[in-house]
Amino acid sequence: MSISLGTVPIPLKDVIISLFGGEPLKSAWKFIVLEYRLPKAITAMLSGGGLAVSGLLMQTLFRNPLAGPFVLGLSSGASLGVALLILGTGIFGASFGGFLLGSWSLVIASAFGSFLVLLAVLSVTFKVKDTMTILIIGLMFGSVTAAVVSVLSYFSNAEQLQQFVFWSFGTLGNVSWDGILILVSCIVVGLLVSMYTIKALNALLLGENYAKSMGINLKLATFWIIIATSLLAGSITAFTGPIAFVGLAVPHLTRQYINSSNHRVLLPAVFMSGAVLMLICDTLAQLPFSELTLPINAITSLIGAPVVIWLLVRKRKLFF
Amino acid sequence: MSTKPLKNIIEVKNVSIGYNKKKHSQIVLEDISFSSQKGELISIVGTNGIGKSTLLKTLARIQPHLQGEMLLKNKAFKEYSTLDFATQLSVVLTESPSSKNITVKELVSLGRYPYTNWIGILTEVDEEIIKESLLDTDTINLAEKKCSELSDGQLQRVMIARALVQNTSIILLDEPTTHLDIYHRAYILKLLKDLAIKKKKTIIFSTHEIDLAIQVSHKMIVMTKEKIYFNKPEKLIKSGCFENLFPSETIQFDHELKQFILKK
Predict the structure, then answer these.
(1) CA A32 vs CA A22, A35, A178, A283: distances in Å
(2) Contact A161, A285 (CB under 8 A)
(3) Closest-CA residue of chain B to A255
(4) Nearest CA-CA partner of B99 in A211, A166, A213
(5) Distance between B102 CA and the closest CA of chain A, angstroms
(6) Fewer Cβ within 10 Å of end Cβ, chain A: N or C?
(7) Contacts of B82 in chain A (CB under 8 A)
(8) Strand residue runs (E) in B207-246
(9) Does the structural domain A12-315 have CATH classification 3.10.290.10?
(10) Which of A199, A209, A214 shows the shortest C-beta gap to B95?
């Protein structure tokens, strides 16, 4: 479905033929499917699942239903990196701006940005014990980077500003097969690390003191959980731009139909739900039967927010 | 005698408790000494803010002890790794579980964590121990319920079941009877005594129920600002330490009734 819709609608039958190596009615369709639509669908599933899992990790680590992958300031770090690249080149001279602005440099800049913020947060993690404090510090880092981005925007010209705004819309379509390879490896490692922390995550459901009393090495577990989150959210944000909401909402949605708090069950369920939800959002972003494609960042919130509000009103309370 | 004399499970000698601050440490209470053997129920009583919770947290290694010596089975507390310590000592704290969505069975199963593999798979032995603890605490009919659906008394029993499942020789409980009505207070304390005797556990708990604690405990730790008393309840009554516990113009300890009465 997601693959068949787009600026050039391709009949579902021809999509399937192309996917299995056959020749569809028009040969251009095969190119579009294999080189554009398929990578996009895969990116959608990977990023949806990965963001959702990192949301789950953060909610359990901080024992706060409002936590998401971006509370650690990861997305603002990425924004800062990209802003420095796009907007900074205008201010600090455009001499080498032109060749820097390829799609790869964007990826590197945002990955570098989130990595820097992460390092800052991690160094704080080792000094501060209380997870609530880490949460607030993460938010503060976010504010600072957002402020720097604002200052940069103020001093840059309209064209650069537009380019930055487009990046911040989020896009699933810019990832090539090479990119997907990198994305997949980051996500696989991220998921493996999360699996390793499953026991600690379950123990944390009782609180930090209880987790410790059950033999969990809390500092080490916190470290690995944060590493997993940043690997997942950081790599995804680097390739797709900031995608709001999925990380926050999907864990809650999943808890509605999975009657278990055990992360051994929750983790794969949340990943699947995130992947499916993102694919649906991507399909809708194509605006079926029209030639427009809406920014994915807007769609996830447009669809997700009403769902969560509906859940809250119905259940009155969001447990985690 | 072929066997060695019964050793103390836990030995606390001249310990100071308190908080470590940046440069200096703030001592809450000094010179605490007591020891405990297998199968003993020990209660800690004292006024609000005297340091009952701090003492329990120090024993649970949630807080570091500032001075003195603490031995668990003749080995210093700090020599245990986090994991080994978890197989020796379990806790029931005043904080309720962060997650309210978790079911009773899941919560109790968490107690097996020091023994399960890296991903926490429960073996048949684990399942058997969990079932036994649910039966012992009369919570087996709650197994599939969520924690948000439990009453305070039920939740307390579930938390005790989780500590039991951890299969430790020592269980610490911080004010297990708060928020409970008189029946449930008595029920919990009786349960603790049963567990201490039948399961040969050393159970140390803090409480404000001095009257009930006198009736149920094997030994008591009475904390006052001047001195820490540690003895059997009867001897403590004779020594007159309960008289000094509270200002005497409002309530008074009655030696005959073994309880506090309002002054007229």
Answers:
(1) 14, 5, 17, 16
(2) no
(3) B101
(4) A211
(5) 5
(6) N
(7) 212, 215-217
(8) 219-223, 228-231
(9) no
(10) A209
Is pLDDT of B19 > 50? yes
Determine the angle formed by the axes of helices A38-61 and A177-196, rounding to 10 degrees: 20
Digit-by-digit pLDDT tens for chain A (320 residues) are: 556 665 566 777 777 777 776 677 777 777 777 777 888 899 999 999 999 999 999 889 888 777 787 777 777 888 888 888 877 766 555 444 444 455 567 777 887 887 787 778 777 777 776 777 877 888 888 888 888 888 888 888 888 888 888 888 887 877 788 889 889 999 999 999 999 999 999 999 999 899 999 999 988 998 899 889 888 988 898 888 888 788 888 998 898 888 888 999 999 999 999 999 999 888 888 776 666 778 888 888 887 788 778 877 776 665 65
DSSP 8-state secondary structure symbol assigned to residue A23: -
A270-304 pLDDT, tens digit each: 999 999 999 988 888 877 666 677 888 888 888 77
- DSSP 8-class letter at A255: H
- Interchain CB distance below 8 Å, A203 and B110: yes
HSE-CB for B207 with a 13 A CA cutoff: 26
Interface test with chain B among A59, A213, A216, A262, by most B beta carbons within 10 Å: A213
DSSP per-residue codes, B62-125: SS---EEEEEETTEEGGGS-HHHHHTTEEEE-SSPPS-SSSBHHHHHHGGGTTTS-TT----HH
- Residue bearing tokens 């031995």: B71
Indicate yes or no: CB of B166 within 8 angstroms of CB of A214: yes
* B100 vs A214, A262, A319: nearest CB: A319
* Test the B interface: residue of A260, A261, A317 with most B CBs within 10 Å: A261
Q: Measure CA of the first residue to CA of the last residue in chain B; give whole Å.
A: 57
| Helix, strand, or coil (residue B224) | coil
Burial B95-125 (b: 16+ CB within 10 A, else e): ebbbbbbbbbbbbbbbbbbbbeeeebeeeee
Report helix, strand or coil for A298: helix
Contacts of A75 (CB under 8 A, 6+ apart): A69, A114, A142, A233, A237, A242
Residue A99 confidence (pLDDT)? 45
Q: Give contacts of B 146-165 with A, CB under 8 A.
A: 146, 148
CB pairs under 8 A between A and B: 89
pTM score, whole prediction: 0.88
What H or E segment, with its residue span, contains residue A144? helix A131-154
Can you give the pLDDT at residue A320? Answer: 59
Q: How far is B19 from chain A (nearest CA, A)?
A: 15
Per the CB < 8 Å rule, is A203 touching B113? yes
Ordered by start, the domain boundaries in chain A are: 12-315
Crossing angle for the helix pair A263-285 and A246-257, to the nearest 10 degrees: 120
pLDDT (0 to 100) of residue A273: 94
